[in-house]
Design brief:
The protein has 380 residues and is α+β, with helices and mostly antiparallel strands. It has helices at residues 2-23, 100-136, 141-174, 223-232, and strands spanning 39-41, 43-45, 47-62, 66-69, 75-80, 87-88, 93-97, 176-178, 183-185, 195-196, 204-207, 213-219, 236-241, 244-256, 266-273, 285-302, 307-309, 312-319, 322-334, 337-342, 349-351, 364-366.
Length: 380
């Protein structure tokens, strides 16, 4: 029994020794114990360079002049003279409506006007004959006044007929729907034989030729910076797509509204593009970037290097082979980079991936192939 207990104790002691040896870290390449073993890290050097000051906004493309073609009179669409996508000149005939009802009213109004003119002429002659008789006392004043009233009534009927004639003539004219501007025909939403309502849905849209504009709105907190850039001269811009940043089209700020929109609390602006690639269409949503200038000699770090804590933002900097916490203040960001303020030198390596067991003062080594940061060198 005692021998069995003794053997058990020896086995337990051996197992404890093995576990202890396993848990002890191996010596590193420098012969140091595992507690001082260097942690391999990925870094990127701090850049000191000009950093753009921009305002990024969502925007909508629109033609500089866009006209919705709406019928001014109702009627049946007899003929469509253009096709979708056609380039038209100002005054060109686009659609013809059935004008026969208006033409019938023209004939009726002309007949009424002719009769009213005849009545007017007859009433004028009668009044001329009665005037000397009334002056001599051969007729009563009442008879003269009745003749004068008949003349005024005839003139009124003639005026009404003349107005009806002009209205009918306008309807015939409006039945021929013409292009108010030169441009390109958009989608046509009616077909021959359709009944068109006066003032109803647009028949089509004309887009004026030329570069597109971008409509956007600037938040109130950015107005001071925008005004400062305008005071320095012309404000340039560029547009791009979120999923295709290779396509960038330059433009110029051409309009800033004089009052803030009370519904949104923003200030409407307009940028005119210098070119219109085929990929850009009116009504399309884009990203608009206003270029307001640059911040010279700015310290720039990757977005991945910036860490956040309750005390504020910080980065890990490799100094003398150790990772040190360096507090910074993030000033502005752009395309995955941050302009920061803090005690950083050009070329210092900052960690862009933070190992789980890393802490301030940990010994680190750069991944194989990464260049050592050179302090004092300003990156281009």
């Amino acid at each position: 029994m005692k021998l069995r207990i003794l053997v058990t104790l020896v086995v337990l002691a051996l197992l404890a020794g093995v576990v202890y040896r396993i848990q002890q870290p191996d010596s590193d390449a420098d012969g140091k114990r595992g507690g001082d073993r260097a942690i391999e890290v990925r870094t990127q050097p701090v850049e000191v360079r000009d950093f753009p000051r921009v305002i990024d906004l969502p925007g909508t493309l629109e033609a500089p002049q866009q006209v919705a073609i709406v019928a001014q009179v109702g009627g049946t669409l007899l003929r469509q003279h253009v096709e979708e996508g056609d380039a038209v000149r100002a005054g060109q005939l686009l659609f013809s409506l059935d004008s026969r009802p208006a033409q019938a009213r023209i004939a009726q109004s002309q007949a009424t006007l002719t009769g009213a003119r005849a009545e007017t002429a007859e009433a004028e002659k009668k009044l001329e004959r009665l005037d000397p008789l009334m002056q001599s006392g051969y007729i009563s004043r009442q008879e003269y006044d009745d003749a004068l009233l008949a003349l005024e009534a005839a003139r009124a009927r003639a005026g009404t007929a003349r107005a009806e004639l002009q209205a009918a003539q306008l309807e015939v004219q409006y039945a021929e729907i013409r292009a108010p501007i030169a441009g390109r025909v958009g989608r046509i939403d009616v077909r021959q034989g359709s009944l068109v309502q006066a003032g109803g849905d647009p028949l089509t849209t004309l887009l004026a030729p030329g570069a597109l504009d971008v409509r956007a709105s600037v938040a109130q907190q950015d107005l001071r910076e925008l005004a400062a850039a305008q005071a320095q001269g012309r404000v340039t811009a560029e547009i791009f797509f979120e999923d295709d940043r290779a396509l960038r089209v330059p433009g110029v700020l051409v309009f800033v509204d004089s009052q803030i929109d009370p519904a949104t609390g923003t200030l409407p602006i307009k940028v005119r593009l210098s070119d219109t690639p085929p990929a850009l269409l009116s009504g399309q949503g884009v990203k608009l970037r206003l270029l307001l200038g640059v911040e010279p000699n700015a310290s720039v770090v990757p977005e991945a290097a910036l860490q956040h804590a309750q005390q504020g933002a910080y980065v890990y900097v490799v100094r003398d082979g150790k990772a040190e916490v360096q507090p910074v203040r993030a000033v502005r960001s752009l395309d995955g980079e941050y302009m920061v303020e803090g005690k950083l030198r050009a070329g210092e390596p900052v960690l862009i991936e933070i190992p789980q067991r890393l802490k301030s003062g940990s010994t680190v080594r750069l991944q194989v192939g990464e260049p050592e940061g050179k302090e004092g060198k300003v990156q281009p």
